[in-house]
Design a protein that fits this description.
Blueprint (H helix, E strand, L loop, with lengths): L2 H35 L3 E7 L7 E7 L3 E8 L6 E11 L2 E14 L5 E6 L6 E9 L4 E11 L7
Length: about 150
């Protein structure tokens, strides 16, 4: 095989790889860009660093309601926990829990708080969770704001 033929074959392979890479990157960028622009909320989650941080805080936003979940980090046996929380809409308290017993909390049965949603409102949830021995296992604050508002502080 001549040097010219080898050069042509290698050039074609490089061009094909380049075209495939551009195509894949373009599709990835388009997908991510579309998701970013269509977001309906801005979420800020803050929490204390605890040695025994047992739960992962998650929020789910829908047009008509919000769902906050606290899921155990591991799939061990179910445990009983006590939750203290305050949920605010535009600064007004709309739901509270004072040492609420949550029985058999597991990956399949997390702590769940749901609320009807107004798309233009700001929601804030302060949550602290203790085990049955009084040890703090979760402490976090979640704020959900309309996508056109910014977080300060």
């Amino acid at each position: 095989m001549s040097k010219l033929m080898k050069f042509i074959i290698i050039s074609l392979i490089v061009m094909i790889v380049f075209i495939i890479a551009v195509f894949l990157i373009g599709n990835f960028y388009f997908s991510v860009n579309t998701v970013e622009k269509s977001g309906e909320q801005v979420t800020n989650i803050s929490g204390d660093d605890l040695e025994n941080d047992l739960l992962i805080a998650k929020s789910y936003s829908y047009d008509d309601h919000l769902t906050f979940t606290y899921v155990p980090r591991t799939s061990g046996k179910p445990i009983d926990l006590y939750a203290d929380y305050k949920l605010k809409e535009d600064g007004t308290t709309i739901a509270t829990g004072n040492h609420r017993l949550c029985e058999d909390v597991s990956v399949d049965k997390p702590i769940v708080i749901e609320v009807q949603r107004n798309l233009s409102s700001v929601y804030e949830l302060g949550m602290s969770v203790e085990d049955t021995n009084g040890n703090m296992v979760q402490k976090s604050n979640i704020a959900i704001k309309p996508h056109n508002e910014l977080f300060f502080g």
